[in-house]
Specification:
The complex is a heterodimer of chains A (about 110) and B (about 375). Chain A contains 5 helices and no strands. Residues about 15-40 of chain A have low confidence and may be disordered. Chain A has one domain (about 1-30, about 50-110). Chain A is mainly α and about 110 residues long. Chain B has about 375 residues and is mostly beta strands. Helices cover about 10% and strands about 50% of the residues of chain B. Chain B has helices at about 30-50, 150-155, 295, and strands at about 60-75, 75-90, 95-105, 110, 120-135, 140-145, 180-195, 195-205, 220-225, 230-240, 250-255, 265-270, 275-285, 300-310, 325-335, 340-350, 355-370. In chain B, strands 1-2-3-5-6-7-8-9-10-11-12-13-14-15-16-17 form a 16-stranded antiparallel beta barrel. The model of chain B is unreliable at about 1-5, about 10-20, about 25-30 and about 40-55 (pLDDT under 50). Classes of the chains: A mainly alpha (about 110), B mainly beta (about 375). Chains A and B meet through α1, α3, α4 and α5 of A and α1, α2, β7 and β8 of B.
């Protein structure tokens, strides 16, 4: 029993260590909030970002009207974390596509 | 295989049936160890996902509820129908969701010889399911879920969504007791071309005879094609009952929202050995009327026509005679989540023709359980 317990503990520790290392790698790879929020160095790049964002919002609104409006009235906008949950629920309930879910979430959280 | 061997208390070979300890306890079998490891791994993954995800869009658990107070008058007999339907949505990590909906409702009526309303509160577990979004094409659902047959049961049933408060006559066809099934389901939606989406659901349900979580043993599925630009969806459903008469049921659904006008048109057809029928419903929002915009844009006109034909086998939940019904409704939206509803209908059957009136109010709340982030 002691031997089995030891093997079990070692395996659990190994998995835990692996997960911890993986989490640290991800954290290192993820840009920090300040980096993400920083303005682009180049004005052209900044315009492109704004343009992309506006296009995504327009496409998101279109997908919202096509998908959500099929069953119910357009709801008020909720805080972003609530919208993330609601969209996950609606993705399952209304079999939304992955792309529709992302674009609607983007539109509803702007 | 299990080779004969000499062992005493303390043997840790997983196939050895002898107790590991003098008091009769057995050693931890390998299978249990594996299960425990998988559990730990899953738990650790979800905890890791929660701890490292600092995005403002990290989902938060939500409590929601649809509620209403409907007063139907069927054949001149008034009833009082309060209803509350709480929903819990609990996201875990990036791919999991635990969701449940219960319904507490009553149908208060005046028994013959009495002036007061009497009734009992009915409780139902509509769904209690765990969803795992495996990839962009497949979501795995396990637990008790709404039977995906047609579109009304899954999408239009909630009291705050439905345009007319009465159920379609064919709703009980192939949806099982309480309109739910218990088992596992694969479902998803994806684009098969830039202008066409495909959605599907395939499920297996087991027999449970205990109320309020009863379900039939069955297998089935639904497939739909959605054209986003035209806002048009057509699809079909199928179910094979794996108990009793082992019959097949099938159905078709149709939904269209012509983009230029605020009009919804929906229809379903269903056929089974216990009955068949169809309903077609249209709802028009008066938001394009130029006069009195402040009021008229909140008004919705609804009409529904339906027919039911008795099948070869009897049913406890379907009408016992061929029936047809027309209904007209008028709803007023005070807000997107609060509205007054009313309708008038006339039901024709060989058992007698009756008028069906409803008036009521419906409401829906949504609130986070925890910090929801910035507005």
């Amino acid at each position: 029993m002691t031997k089995q317990f030891l093997v079990f503990s070692l395996l659990a520790m190994a998995i835990g260590a692996g997960l911890l290392a993986s989490a640290q790698d991800r954290q290192a790879a993820k840009p920090s909030a300040s980096t993400a929020a920083a303005p682009s160095a180049s004005p052209a790049a900044g315009r492109a970002t704004v343009h992309d964002d506006a296009a995504e919002r327009i496409e998101g609104e279109k997908r919202f009207k096509a998908n959500c409006g099929r069953c119910h009235m357009a709801p008020e906008k909720f805080p972003p974390r609530m919208m993330a949950t609601i969209l996950r629920h609606m993705r399952v309930r209304a079999t939304l596509t992955d792309e529709d879910t992302q674009l609607i979430l983007h539109y509803m959280t702007q | 295989m299990a080779a004969p061997h000499d062992c005493s208390f303390g043997c840790t070979r997983y196939w050895c049936g002898k107790p590991a300890f003098p008091d009769g306890r057995r050693a931890l079998p390998l299978q249990r160890t594996i299960v425990a490891l998988i559990f730990l791994l899953t738990l650790a993954s979800s905890l890791r996902a929660q701890s490292e995800d600092t995005d403002v869009q990290r989902p938060v658990p939500i409590f929601s509820a649809g509620m209403g107070f409907i007063t139907p008058f069927q054949g001149g007999q008034p009833n009082l129908d309060p209803l509350i339907s709480p929903i819990f949505l609990i996201p875990i990590g990036d791919r999991w969701l635990i969701e449940s909906r219960d319904t507490f409702e009553s149908d208060f009526a005046t028994p013959p010889g009495s002036d007061t309303f009497h009734g009992v509160i009915q409780k139902e577990v509509d769904y209690l399911q765990v969803d795992y979004i495996a990839n962009p094409y497949v979501t795995v659902t396990v637990g008790r879920y709404l039977t995906p047959f047609g579109i009304f049961n899954e999408r239009l049933y909630p009291i705050w969504i439905r345009d007319l408060q009465s159920d379609p006559l064919i709703l009980p066809i192939a949806t099982g007791p309480s309109n739910a099934s218990t088992g596992a389901m694969f479902r998803g939606g994806f684009a098969i071309s830039p202008k066409v989406n495909l959605n599907y659901a395939a499920y297996y349900s087991t027999l449970i005879a205990v109320s309020p979580v009863d379900s039939d043993r069955s297998a089935g599925g639904r497939v739909g094609i959605f054209l986003p630009d035209q806002r048009l969806e057509v699809g079909g459903s199928f179910q094979h009952l794996l108990q009793d008469e082992r019959s097949n049921s099938f159905g078709f659904h149709f939904a269209w929202q012509p983009p230029p006008i605020p009009l919804d048109i929906r229809a379903e057809y269903a056929r089974s050995s216990r009955g068949s029928g169809y309903w077609i419903e249209s709802a028009y929002r008066l938001s394009q009327i130029a006069t009195a915009q402040d009021y008229l844009r909140n008004v919705q006109l609804v009409a529904r026509m339906q027919q039911f034909f008795v099948g070869a086998l009897p049913s406890e939940v379907l009408p016992t005679a061929n029936t047809q019904e027309f209904e007209f409704g008028l709803n007023y939206y005070f807000r997107d989540n609060l509205r007054a509803v009313s309708s008038y209908g006339r039901q024709f059957s060989s058992l007698g023709n009756v008028n069906v009136w409803t008036v009521g109010i419906t409401y829906r709340i949504v609130t986070p359980i925890g910090h929801a982030g910035a507005d």
